[in-house]
Write a structure and sequence with these properties.
Number of strands: 6
Bound molecules: farnesyl diphosphate
Number of helices: 7
CATH class: Alpha Beta
Length: 241
C-alpha cells in the first residue's frame, strides 16, 4: 500500500527534523526585505506540517531559532519573535483542528515573556493531540543542550542519586530537551548548505540526511514527499552491513 508520499507506509520516517534555511536569500533574490523571507518561511511551516500529517509522519522538529540567531540585527530578531508570536496566535485553531501537539525545545526562558506565555498556553491546550508532534527548536543549540544534560548528570552523581558506573546512553538521552521524543530518522536541510549547524547533534547520529537546493520559503508538499522518497530508497545500516 502506497501513501500520498508515494512510498509504502512502513517506510515513512517516524520523525523528520528540518533545518529551514534560505529565507534571507529568497527575499534578496526578489529585492524584498529579509523579514518578508521569514514571513513566507512561516507559511512554508504550515504547508510542511500539513504534508507531514498527510504522509503519516508522527514527529516533525523545526529549527526555528538558534542560540546563535540572537546575534542577528535587533530588528530582525524582533521581527522573528513577532512572527513566532503571530504563528502561535493565528494558528491555534488550526493546530487543534489538525490534532497537532505543539512542543518546544531550547532555552525557552530567553524568549520575550509574552511569546513564552503564548507558547506555553498552546502547548498546554494541545498536549493531548495525537496526529503529529510539532516541536519548535527555539533559542536552541545542541552543544548547550548536551552541556545542560552533563550538568544535570553531574548534580545527580554529586547528590548520590546516580552511580557513575550505571550511566548509559539512555541516561544521557533522558536528560536532553528531546527526552521522550524518538530520534529523527530523516534530517532535511534546505538551500543547499552541507552543514548541521549545531542542531540535534546527539539525536541525529543515525539519521539519513537530505539536502535540497530549494530555499525554505519555496519548500512545499512535493519537496517533502521527494525527500521522504529519497529516504525510503536508502538502506539504513546502523554501522552493520
Ligand atoms: C534561516 O534563513 C531561517 C531562520 C533563521 C529562521 C526560520 C524561521 C522561520 C521559517 C519563520 C518563523 C518560524 C515559525 C515557526 C513561525 P536565513 O535567514 O538564515 O536565510 P539566509 O541563509 O538565506 O540568509
Amino acid at each position: 500500500m502506497s501513501n500520498p508520499a508515494g512510498v509504502a507506509a512502513e517506510r515513512i520516517p517516524r520523525h523528520i527534523a528540518i533545518i529551514m534555511d534560505g529565507n534571507g536569500r529568497w527575499a534578496r533574490e526578489r529585492g524584498l526585505p529579509r523579514i518578508e523571507g521569514h514571513r513566507r518561511g512561516s507559511e512554508a511551516v504550515r504547508a510542511c506540517t500539513a504534508a507531514c500529517i498527510k504522509a503519516g509522519v508522527s514527529h516533525l522538529t523545526l529549527y526555528a531559532f538558534s542560540k546563535e540567531n540572537w546575534q542577528r540585527p535587533p530588528d530582525e530578531v524582533k521581527a522573528l519573535m513577532n512572527l513566532l508570536d503571530r504563528f502561535l496566535a493565528e494558528r491555534t485553531t488550526e493546530i487543534m483542528k489538525r490534532n497537532i501537539r505543539l512542543h518546544a525545545i531550547g532555552h525557552l526562558d530567553d524568549l520575550p515573556a509574552n511569546t513564552r506565555r503564548r507558547l506555553d498556553s498552546v502547548r498546554e491546550k494541545s498536549a493531548g493531540n495525537t496526529a503529529l508532534t510539532l516541536t519548535l527548536a527555539l533559542s536552541y543549540g545542541a552543544r548547550t543542550e548536551i552541556t545542560d544534560a552533563a550538568r544535570a548528570i553531574a548534580r545527580a552523581v554529586r547528590d548520590g542519586d546516580l552511580d557513575p558506573d550505571a550511566l548509559s546512553e539512555e541516561t544521557i538521552a533522558s536528560r536532553l530537551y528531546t527526552a521522550g521524543l524518538p530520534d529523527p530518522d530523516l534530517l532535511i536541510r534546505t538551500s543547499g548548505e552541507m552543514r548541521v549547524s549545531n542542531f540535534l547533534l546527539w539525536q541525529i547520529s543515525y539519521a539519513e540526511i537530505v539536502v535540497t537546493a530549494k530555499l525554505w520559503p519555496e519548500f512545499g508538499e512535493e519537496d517533502l514527499f521527494a525527500a521522504i522518497r529519497e529516504y525510503a530508497g536508502r538502506h539504513r545500516r546502523y554501522g552493520g552491513i
